[in-house]
Automatic annotation (TrEMBL):
Signal peptide: none annotated. Residues 47-228 form the Metallo-beta-lactamase domain. This is MBL fold metallo-hydrolase. It comes from Parasphingorhabdus cellanae. Coiled coil: none annotated. Pfam families: Lactamase_B_2.
Length: 256
């Protein structure tokens, strides 16, 4: 194995189904339509990186039999990407040292303010995260992580490319437009996990046609759609998409 990808969650901020057992256009009898909030793990033989601490993190770790990580990266500070931070306490309990935790400067400062106890500790509780700046190129263990800032409404999110032994996994979620820097970053990826919220355009997220145009411009070997809402039925997407573009599903594991 050079790199492994684990899709912990591939749903939008409300998940699928939404509260109220609202499946929308998704078939409730298809298990791959049940989506928790977006998060992934990328790992090499020696390094395991968690991307985002979704509110569903505990359930995701249990479902995928994950009991430890080495590092965490946050793409940005929206609730569906960071509000599971407290579940990192259980990871800390095993190592007994703060987890190296990376984000872009503006997101890191926001996280430190909102979850100060996690970074600074408390009289009775130690800190669980060691906040670190995510640079445009950061070596994390034996994985090189390259970063590009993606427009996402009034903020930016971090688009990520993970490289190890000439293999690459890229992750682009929560963007509302595609820049040339993004195209340069993701071009030729072995696996490209990319936002495709729905088919109808959205002001801050990619819709399916935008995503397909983006994929065509960067030509990855395999693309996996993520951050999908209740309109994106798994089997219908499989029927209309080419074989090198697939909807992701919670628990999907790919090794390259």
């Amino acid at each position: 194995m050079s790199l492994k990808l684990i899709i912990l969650g591939c749903g939008t901020s409300s998940g699928v189904p939404r509260i109220g057992n609202d499946w929308g256009d998704c078939d409730p009898n298809e298990p791959k339509n049940r989506r928790t909030r977006v998060s992934i793990i990328v790992e090499s033989p020696t390094t395991r990186i968690l991307v985002d601490t979704s509110p569903d993190l505990r359930a995701q770790f249990l479902a995928c039999d994950i009991d430890a990580i080495d590092h965490v990266i946050w793409t940005h500070d929206h609730a569906d990407h960071c509000h599971g931070i407290d579940d990192l306490r259980q990871v800390f309990q095993q190592k007994r040292e703060p987890i190296p935790a990376y984000a872009r400067s503006f997101a890191l400062e926001s996280l430190k303010q909102r979850f100060a106890y996690a970074f600074e500790g408390h009289k009775y509780y130690p800190s669980i995260c060691d906040g670190r700046l995510l640079e445009t190129k950061t070596e994390i263990g034996d994985i090189v992580v390259k970063t590009v800032d993606q427009p996402h409404g009034g903020i930016t999110s971090a688009g990520l490319r993970f490289e190890h032994n000439e293999k690459s996994i890229s992750y682009a979620t929560d963007f509302g437009e595609v820049t040339e820097d993004m195209r340069k970053m993701f071009r030729g990826s072995d696996i490209f996990v990319v936002d495709a919220l729905r088919e109808k355009p959205h002001p801050t997220h990619a819709h399916l046609n935008m995503t397909r145009d983006f994929i065509d411009s960067v030509k990855p070997r395999l693309s996996l759609l993520t951050h999908m809402d209740k309109s994106m039925d798994y089997n219908r997407l499989c029927a209309i998409l080419p074989k090198d573009i697939q909807p992701a599903y919670d628990g999907l594991v790919i090794e390259i």
